[in-house]
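thread from #wetlab-drylab

HS: before we spend reagent money on co-crystallization trials with iron/sulfur cluster, can we at least see a predicted complex? here's what I'd submit
DV: go for it
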Amino acid sequence: MQSNTSKPDFSVPQEELDKQAQYAAMAESVLQSRFPDRKPRAFVHTYGCQGNVADGEKIKGILESLGYALTDEIEGSDLVLYNTCAIREHAQDRVFGNVGKRKAWKEADRSRILALCGCMMQQEYVAEKIKKSYPYVDLVFGTHVIYKLPEFIYRCLCDGKRVFDLSGGDGNVVEGLPVHRDGTFKAWIPIMYGCNNFCSYCVVPYVRGRERSRDFDTVVAEARHLIAQGYREITLLGQNVNSYNKDKDPSLRFPALLRAINDIEGDFWIRFMTSHPRDCTPELLDTMAQCEKVAKHLHLPVQSGNDRVLRDMNRHYDREKYLSLIDYARQKMPDLSITSDIIVGFPGETAEEFDDTLSLVERVQYTSLFTFIFSPRPGTKAAELPDPFDRAEKNRRFKALTDLQEQIAGRRTAAMKGERFCVLVEEPAKEEGFLSGRTEGNVIIEFPGDKSLIGTFRTVEVTEPKTWVLKGKLIDDKD
Ligand code: SAH
Ligand code: SF4
Ligand code: F3S
């Protein structure tokens, strides 16, 4: 499908990609001569959202193409790379902690490479701190230059100097990079990058650049390829999937993409995240209802149930609009499972305003919630706002919210007793002999079964519903 050429062009010039292919060949031959008897080993760890995990899979794919073998063991590795997240301060602190722990590893053998990339690095003050306080870090690069990894590795191997590339700008869309998929039956497909929403608390638009959509046909072809390889679940990723192709082709928006992937032959589920309520339309909900392969699960982050707070968060919807979307969705899909993200303690949030969040949660009856205490992010508007409530008060509200959700989830799961669900069997559960499966609505059920069932759809009956873990038994044993 042709993109409209009057719109911004985010592609990277072919000569730049050709140059990277040359660097890849050069890095590979240097590595072969340095490691004549074994492959060099790379340990890659990703923090943050699934979008970052998908980036991590590209990073691993590139490293493999240079000749690295991936490893889970830090000690025996030749390269350690942390792909970081900046969404909350806590996420950043964990990275600094881990980088600190790698000092001895690096100093034991200076030819080892310690690398940092991802959203956190895209903030100037972080890159400066790494430059000054962590001199043993060899390579730092941002979110827009992953495709240059072959060049970075080559320079680390041959120049003996630290490499920093934090090119900013609006970002790009690079197709054709190798991908090492972590899963064999569940796969991520990023459909867009960046974010234009500038929610006042959020760092993402600053570290990920402007919203840009991947080409429609390229995405559908990738889904077709994965399904042909036997993948059973495809998750379409973007910070706001409902604005897919707003920048490029208004005739091929997100509902059209869901329909096109739903039309691919095969037995699979389609999931997507995240949906921003601002751009969530009745058309999207109708499409979900009509597409039988689209999992009946909607992750629709509300953030707060109070209109003043939502306005100051710059979310562009109010409580009423959000609730009317929920009502419409439930009317079209009575069994729809709805989940959300909520921020507690946004600057100036009063006890009464927080009560509006509690009453919204009670009204919606979410399947589950991701709850966060507001974390001021340098450079964002909300970080500058007066914030009179102390941490103890925020912790109290946080607990009130999680207690309420626990009661709601407990009631929901109790009602599932005796019901049968189709699950995608994902992994062995903690309990010996048990497997863990996920329903269409994103609820986990654990049941006794053989590991050979992993990666298949099965029917399970809930026998013992607890609030967070449901126990069940396998009903069929078809292939
Ligand atoms: N694009 C998605 C959210 C991505 S970030 C959306 O708009 O819905 C995931 C979640 O992290 C957000 O929904 C929000 O609840 C939380 N979050 C983001 N910035 C935060 C901050 N500064 N403090 C606390 N939580 C935050
Ligand atoms: Fe952040 Fe808002 Fe964009 Fe989500 S939509 S990534 S919360 S700015
Ligand atoms: Fe974190 Fe970046 Fe994702 S800040 S949540 S890894 S887009």
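DV: The pocket of FE3-S4 cluster (ligand 3) is lined by residues 48-49, 51-52, 85-87, 119, 203-204, 207-208 (CB under 6 Å).
HS: ok that's useful, forwarding to the group
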